[in-house]
Each structure stands twice: as C-alpha cells, then as structure tokens.
Amino acid sequence: MALDISPSQAFAHLTERSADYDRMAKALAWLADRWQERPSLDEAAQAVGLSPFHFQRVFSRWAGVSPKTFVAAIAHAEARRSLEEGASVLDAAYDAGLSGPSRLHDLFIAQEAVTPGDVRRRGEGISLTWGWAPTPYGKGLFVMAPRGLAGLAFSDGDDAATYDDMHRRFPAADWRRDDEAAARTAIHAFHGGDQPLPVVLIGSPFNVQVWKALLRIPPGQTSTYGEIAAWAGKPRAYQATGGAIGANPISLLIPCHRAIAKDGRLTGYHWGLGRKAAILGMEAVEAGARLSA
C-alpha cells in the first residue's frame, strides 16, 4: 500500500488492523478448516460467539470485504491446483505481470555476507536489531540486520515464545531491541510506496535457494512443495524443501504461506493455519481487485 499518509497515520492504521486481526483470529482459524464447505455468515459468527452483525462489521473492516467474499477468494485460489498445469503457468502469470505492484514482488533480496561457517556458529559476529510493531496479521516481531529485514514472526499472545523461537535461530548474534526501528520497518513493509524493502536472507545455500524460489509464486496463487523443490534445483528433495520452507525466518514477505500439499490442502504453517488462510485470502482478494481494475 502506497504511503499517501503520514508515518503516524500509517502506524495508527496498522495498529487498528492488527487489533481487528486479533479479534478475528479465532474466526480465521475456523474458516481455515472449513473454507471448502463455504460456511454461511451465521455459522461463522456462531462459531466464534459473535452476532452476525458484529462479526460482519469487524471482519469487513479488517479484510475490506465480507466474510463470504473472503472465503470465495480462498476457494478460487486453491481450486486452481486441480488444473495441474504446473510451473509453466505460474511462470507465464508472473512474466505477464499479473502480480501487479504487490509489495511481495517488489522486494530487493540482499543475501547477507556471511559464510556457511558463520551460520553454523549460530550468528556469531552478526548484529541484529529487533522490536515489536503492529501488522495486518497481528503483532509482529521484526528482526533487522544492517542491510535489511532478516526476520518477521507473529505473536498470538505469547511474546516470549515468539521471541525465543526467533532468537534460537541465531543465539550467538548481538541482539539489540529497538521498537521504533521495528515500527519504521513495519510502515515501510506495509505502507512503503515505491521504495522496496531490503530483505536479507541468512541461511544455508540450499535454504536460501528455496526461499528465493518461493518468490516465484505470484500473490493470490499457490504452488506445491514439488514445484518449489524443482525451482530450487532439487526436484526430488521434497522433505528437505519442506524443512527449508518451515525454517523460513521472514514470514509473509518470503511467502512460505503459498506452499501447499499436492492435493490442495493448507498444510502446516509455522505461524498457524488461521493466519495462513488469512494471508492467502487477502492476497486472493487483492489480486482479484487488480485484475478487475
């Protein structure tokens, strides 16, 4: 989203969307399990203990569309898997510019200048700045290296566990907290206009290849683990590819949420299936809006 408002307004907008996401988290998790059934508004509202009116109002404020439209968008995004048209269709869509001006495809990927030995030493010699900031998908933990964003995780109420999960990836690094820097990064990521957000990939060579391969999947679409393994140059390494996807430290911006099972199921996501459904649904809604504009 372009930065046509002040940083303070952008931060307030992120804070409001973050709060709305927290209110809708239970509903999104419920929808993630039942989107194929196309549940009604009354069913979804009842499942989370809200009146249909209140549920519709809060959900629509967060998503910008009704719950019915949101679920239809998820169904449309996932139904394409049944076509079994493979990577060439994805490449053609990407090359044709169907992803539009999405932030996820405007990223500047900067691989951090660390050796495999540095990675094995668990981040020794790396300086990382971290902090909390709101995002459209709840409270976000941002981790910044000198050259760009190195980590983005989400908290569902247990901030300490979220921090520990991220910290154990590089426990020997020099970690310094700065919530103001995290807020600036959040505004850049979600209201950054035309300036791309530098993203730093710190990991083994194979993991980095897999994370870069994920960027080939346009917003509003999904790919199987097998397709991603092939793009990473290891077409038979399904399990290793799944492990690399699960180890992705930069949620959302390196779109591991777009990886699904061959049969189209929304399989495990490190930050919860409800959040995975939320992100996929929002991307499908935004992609549909761009194509109909």
Task: List the main descriptive attributes of the protein structure presented here.
alpha/beta, Arc Repressor Mutant, subunit A, four-stranded mixed sheet, 12 helices, 14% strand
Helix % is 40-55%
- Which geometry do the CA atoms define? globular
The end-to-end span amounts to 16 Å
Instruction: Report the β-strand fraction as a percent range.
Output: 5-15%
Low-confidence stretches: 79-106
Number of strands: 8
CATH superfamily assignment of the domain at 88-266?
Winged helix-like DNA-binding domain superfamily/Winged helix DNA-binding domain
SSE-based structural type: alpha/beta
Task: Describe the overall structure.
The chain is built from 12 helices and 8 strands. It is of the alpha/beta class and 293 residues long. The protein has a 4-stranded mixed beta sheet with strand order 4-3-2-5. The protein has a two-stranded parallel ribbon with strand order 1-6. The chain has a two-stranded parallel ribbon with strand order 7-8. Helix 1 (7-34) crosses helix 8 (179-191), helix 2 crosses helix 3 (52-63) and helix 4 packs across helix 12 (273-292). The radius of gyration is 19 Å and the shape is globular. The two termini are 16 Å apart.
